[in-house]
Amino acid sequence: MPxxxxxxxxxxxxxxxxxxxxxAGVEIFDERSLRRHQPAAxxxxxxxxxxxxxxxxxxxxxxxxxLDSGRAVVIHLGMSGQVLLRTPGATTDHLLRIRLSLEHxxxxxxxxxxxxxRVFGSMAVDAMAPTADGLPGGYSGTVxxxxxxxxxxxxxxxxxxxxxxxxxxxxxxxxALLARxxxxxxxxxxxxxxxxxxxxxxxxxxxxxxxxxxxxxASSLSHAQATTLLAAVRTILQRALAEGGTSFDAQYVxxxxxxxxxxxxxxxxxxxxxxxxxCGTLIVRERFMNRGSHFCPxxxxxx
DNA sequence: CAGTTAACCTGTCAGC
DNA sequence: TGCTGACAGGTTAACT
Length: 303
Known about the structure:
By secondary structure, this protein is an alpha+beta fold. The chain has helices at residues 4-18, 44-48, 171-179, 185-190, 200-210, 223-242; strands at 22-28, 57-59, 62-66, 71-76, 81-86, 96-104, 108-116, 122-130, 152-154, 284-288, 291-295. Helix 5 crosses helix 6. The longest helix is centred in the last third of the chain and has 20 residues, at 223-242. The chain binds a DNA duplex through helix 5.
């Protein structure tokens, strides 16, 4: 489940189940899902076995579980990853790549199944480093202030920008980056080094809301346009999160395998050939960055 | 250097 | 009923 709202749905579902639990077992069914694990400090299984999970944290589309070893399990869902909580003994999920068996002091035994059709996602145990700004590494719900992992971030996530619903996100810094980007605004929105958490669906939705053409040069946006766009990003991500994320099929589900409801609220993504809700002009789909870009040719003019 | 493209993968669905 | 090609919500290495 790829974009910020879908990943946050997973994080929120994981947090109460895994916080305080001990990793009692690790089963690897497909080594490719460990592509991002650097074995120099030890194998994935060795780094994880017997460790206690302290929290569930997210920045953009990256998720991590800090461990009592000072390291963290980093999870990225890629295009098709799922994290499913199962009762031990449950029937094997199709396309299961990795399974963690947890022992929780009060909830008992639990399976955390990492399922991933396309294997673009991954799990890895990674070192933590202090954040560059000394602020919290990501969102972890309501957690004690002095936890040592709080102002740290996994090294493989350090280059990812803060996301727009992070209280520490700097709008002025983001506007300054946009102002010197010589590329289209959609490319900039999808660049996780500028702003994280936005993918193809929410890029199209927010540009539609802000009435900006996807190829409009990022540096050409007025301050007012950039402000409108960021406000749209925040509003739409929050609404999608409140509705449990966007699901077109059983691929994008929460930790219990349930779909979200935001798909019915989409105004542009996947709506090509249907009338724009504002002006009635047919929504167009164009090929862009090897994917689809959906927009209203009347409301979103290139200028 | 910044910007853009290719590669990594499997499953599903439309069209023949 | 196959077969083929298009398509899918992301990231990063390697191009230009």
